[in-house]
Amino acid sequence: MNDGIIDGGIAGDRPRLDPATFIKANLRLEPVPAIPEIRLYSAHPGSGLRRLVEADEVEQAEGNEADAPEPQPPYWAYVWAGGSVLARYIIDRPQTVAGRRVLDLGAGSGLVGIAAAKAGASAVIAAEIDRNGVAALGLNAAANGVTIMVIGEDITTGPPPVVDLVLAGDVFYGREVTLRVTPFLDRCLAAGIDVLVGDPRRTDLPLSRLRLLAEYQVPDFGDAKGAASKPSGVFSFEPEDR
């Protein structure tokens, strides 16, 4: 089976893993639980995802790329509740995105951006810092017949792109990332950009800044097999002095 290894190109070079080739060869393209309208390349017990992360670590060490971002865990290969609940909300309420320019922040697999594109967004930008995630995002968009522009870098340190709506699924999964993302979302609000958040109420979710719009029962990554799904929310991110 083709496991995604391609030649280094020069005799003696270490063979490297091409992310897109690896993903197509080792992950399964299957419907998303709770959002069967969308199919994603998803991890399974035999997919060997650790090889992709290890390949990134080796390439970074051999290239001595001091300024390169640290290899990321393969979050993009799994469906998370925050993205699922946002995608379900958008598919059920296409008027949320129809005719609007949309940013999928921390896009991962691209689930939320794909939902927006299917629901009639005029343009979709996906921001994702993991190069393997960027590869998966492109494959997932093509598999669902939509076009998404990908930004493969951290955009939270600068001004927001020219969009009408930011969709932020599961971006508050830790204290450090919350402290980085919140000022960016405030800059979005100041620029007149609406912000919707999808989250299963993780510990660092800034609930005081959120207004609940809808709830859905969707599975979350890490849930035990057969476990009952907990309600996850779609929220409007509100100004601090509201």
Automatic annotation (TrEMBL):
The organism's place on the tree of life at top rank: Bacteria
Listed GO biological process terms: methylation
Record-linked Pfam families: Methyltransf_16
GO MF term set: protein-lysine N-methyltransferase activity
SUPFAM superfamilies: S-adenosyl-L-methionine-dependent methyltransferases
Record keywords: Methyltransferase, Transferase
Name used for this protein in its record: Methyltransferase
Record organism: Mesorhizobium waimense
Lineage: Bacteria, Pseudomonadati, Pseudomonadota, Alphaproteobacteria, Hyphomicrobiales
